[in-house]
Every structure is written in structure tokens, then in C-alpha cells.
Specification:
The complex is a heterotetramer, with 2 copies of chain A (80 residues) and 2 copies of chain B (150 residues). By secondary structure, chain A is an alpha+beta fold. Chain A has 2 helices and 5 strands; from the N terminus they run βαβαβββ. Classes of the chains: A alpha+beta (80), B alpha+beta (150).
Chain lengths: 80, 150, 150, 80
């Protein structure tokens, strides 16, 4: 299955892009997806357990992903 | 009741009018502005960016929560995105209520939840020409922000 | 830092500008307005009157206290006197501060102290044509207000 | 000695005027002045112990008055 990963702000900078596609085995969780992302060049500057959202809602790392999900890796928010 | 991201200056007077009703005795306006110093560093401006679709959903959720908790539908929030200069308003929260106590509490609830949950980020530009993403304290672990020469 | 009684409409935007400085990240505007219902009675307007010289002194004292307690000189208060219609602003309190927590606390301090101490009175005019002085809860003992037919 | 009494709002209404002069014995207190005021027509509608200010500052009933003082009888305040 394929998941779209969205990156923002400092995370987009360290990975050099704002989005990417991940091919994952069926049943893969957010944790599995993060492991893939953290193996990419520059990702050593990401935190071990970043905040994530699946389809625009905050999600836990054991959340099971589905084909077509949008997984956003959320840097520390600084709105207001 | 309304929440929006905008890419233009925020009109605080218009928001004040939007929440005005004769049943209300108290209107509270919170205006967040770009400061010239943060953590001891001289700031010349801030860029705001967001995960816009999620940010709008979170903002709407927060406004609905405040409306239910504090019993008023007269809550309007606008958050600005893009490049802001010193003194520009990044956010305006207008709340009106029959009674002042609930107006203060609702306003405070909205800004605190926004600071905690809404996926908006800011990059400060400093007087020495550098710029840096600002990390809030809500991440699972501390993050070393990327620092670049502007 | 300024406090005044005024006999004309209050310009909230002007007060906001008056407290604006680049060192401030948060501006809080409290606007008290004439409500259409009080204690279950339909209100058509309010007359405000004051012991003006003492009221101005108390307002100035309160603003100074808030300035010292919350570490900002950016506090401006105007209280309107005379005949006000529904929705008119009777008071505007503008506070600006580098940080939002202190801005909320200072604003709240100022309005609560004004409600407690400043010798200003209001007479409500009701839909049934009567009018009545409104008593707050700060008197030494309960007072039966004078009721007259308007 | 002479003290100026200031009346406001509902208190001015019940006494039918906004100010009056009181002649008091030397050493008279706020309490003595209030007793005089409360003997006037209409004053039965004043509270037993109203708030008072002397020369624009809140004062206690045992405050000793001086010639020329301004004694304000303060109805429950309702600003804001």
C-alpha cells in the first residue's frame, strides 16, 4: 500500500522536501512509517518520536495505516 | 462562530463587530503581534506557515469546544499566514458574552489550545540576517531547530 | 499608561494603537457594552454618572497598581459617562505586554478593581418606561434602589 | 466647623439634592456626620452604614473630620 507523507517547516527543511510517498506492507503502523522516514538522508535531525497526524487528526504511533492515508509529521507547533 | 486562516492583514474592528450582539455585556479581543525580541535575540519579522487543511479543522474544533464550554456562539478567530513585520497581528480572537468572566475564560481557552494543537509554524528573521524555525514546548521531545543563514 | 472619564464614544482602535509597542507580543482589549437584559428585565439604555474627580483618581490608582504588579506601562482605560444606547461601549481597557498571560491578568485586575472601587453609577432604562439605579454588591449593606417612573 | 457633604445617584435622589453643608462640633467623626444626614427627610432610605469618602479617598466611620473636608456618601458602585 502507499501512504503520502507530509513534512512541514524545519522537518521539510531537513529532508529537503514537503512530501513523499512511502510503500509499506499491509498492516504497517505509524511507527513503521516513521522508521522508514528516519532512515532517509538528513532525518537524523528529526526527533525520535515526532508528533504525527493521520488524515488531519493527531494519531498514535501504533495506529495502523491504510492505503491512501496522509501521514503528516508535525514539528513543534508555534501558532498564535 | 468562525475560524479562518488568512493571507492578508487581520481587521480587528471587523471581528469585534462580528461578535457584537445586544445580549452581550463584554467583548474581549486578543491580538497577538510580532515582537522585536524573542529569547534575547533581535527579531525583524516572522514567516508563518501551516498545514492549512488540518489547521483550519483544529481551529474550528477549538472554537466549537469554547462555545460549548462557555455558552456563547460569539467567537471569531483569524490567524494570519505569510510574511509579517514587527507589530503586525498574527492572530485576533474576538469573544463576546453576556458576562465578562466567561468572556475572559473563553478567550484564554482559545489561545492556549491554539498554541498547543494547531499545526502552524513560524520562522523568525533576526537582525543578524539569520532565520530559524521556532519550536514550542509541546513536542514529544526537544527538537534542535534548523538554523540557516538568510 | 492613562485613565480617563469621557463624555463621548470610546475609540477602541485608538486605544489599541496607544498601547502598541514592538516589545509587546499580546494586546488585550476589554470592551464593556450596554446589554439588552439585566436581571431578567428588558433594558433600552443606561445613564452613567460619577463622582468624577474621585473616579479619575481611583482609575489612575488602579492603572498604576496593575502596571507595577504586571510589569507593563502599556495600559489605557477610558470609561464613558452620560446616556448610552444598547451596544454602546461604556468602558474600554487596552493592555499590551510582551507575554499573553500577564496581559490577561492585568486586564482582569483592572476591570475587577473598577467594578469594586470606582465611584461610577448607572441608571438603567427599561422597556416598560421605568428606570432604576443599579446597585452592585460592594456596599456595606444591601440598598433598596430608588425606583421611579421614567 | 463646616463640612461639605456630596450625594450621588440614588442617594442624591432620596435626599433631593447633590450636596449640602453640615455644621459640626470640633472633633466630629464621619459617624457623627452620618447621624446628622440620616435625620433628614428621605434619609430613611439610606443604608445604616454607607460607604464614605473624605476628600476623594474611602474613609472609615471613625475618621475625624476637619473644617472644609468634602464628605462623599457613596452608593454601591456600578461602573464598568
Amino acid at each position: 500500500m502507499t501512504v503520502t507523507v507530509l513534512l512541514f517547516a524545519s522537518y521539510a527543511d531537513v529532508l529537503g522536501r514537503g512530501s513523499l510517498s512511502l510503500d509499506l506492507a499491509s498492516g504497517a503502523t505509524v511507527r513503521d512509517a516513521l522508521r522508514e522516514i528516519q532512515s532517509m538522508p538528513g532525518a537524523e535531525r528529526l526527533p525520535m518520536q515526532p508528533l504525527v497526524a493521520v488524515n488531519e487528526r493527531y494519531a498514535r504511533v501504533d495506529r495502523v495505516l491504510a492505503d491512501g492515508d496522509a501521514l503528516a509529521v508535525i514539528p513543534p507547533v508555534a501558532g498564535g | 462562530m468562525r475560524a479562518a486562516l488568512v493571507h492578508r492583514p487581520i481587521d480587528a474592528a471587523a471581528l469585534t463587530k462580528e461578535v457584537a450582539r445586544h445580549a452581550n455585556g463584554a467583548t474581549l479581543l486578543f491580538i497577538g503581534t510580532v515582537r522585536d525580541v524573542n529569547d534575547g535575540r533581535g527579531v525583524t519579522g516572522i514567516e508563518y506557515t501551516a498545514y492549512e487543511s488540518m489547521a483550519e479543522r483544529e481551529l474550528a474544533d477549538i472554537v466549537h469546544e469554547a462555545s460549548a464550554e462557555f455558552a456563547t456562539t460569539d467567537i471569531v478567530v483569524e490567524h494570519r499566514l505569510g510574511a509579517l513585520d514587527l507589530g503586525d497581528a498574527s492572530i485576533v480572537i474576538a469573544v463576546a458574552h453576556p458576562h465578562r468572566g466567561a468572556a475572559y475564560d473563553a478567550s484564554r481557552y482559545v489561545i492556549e489550545q491554539i498554541k498547543r494543537r494547531v499545526p502552524i509554524w513560524k520562522r523568525e528573521h533576526y537582525v543578524d540576517g539569520t532565520r530559524q524555525w521556532v519550536g514550542a514546548s509541546t513536542s514529544a521531545r526537544p527538537v534542535t531547530d534548523a538554523v540557516e543563514t538568510g
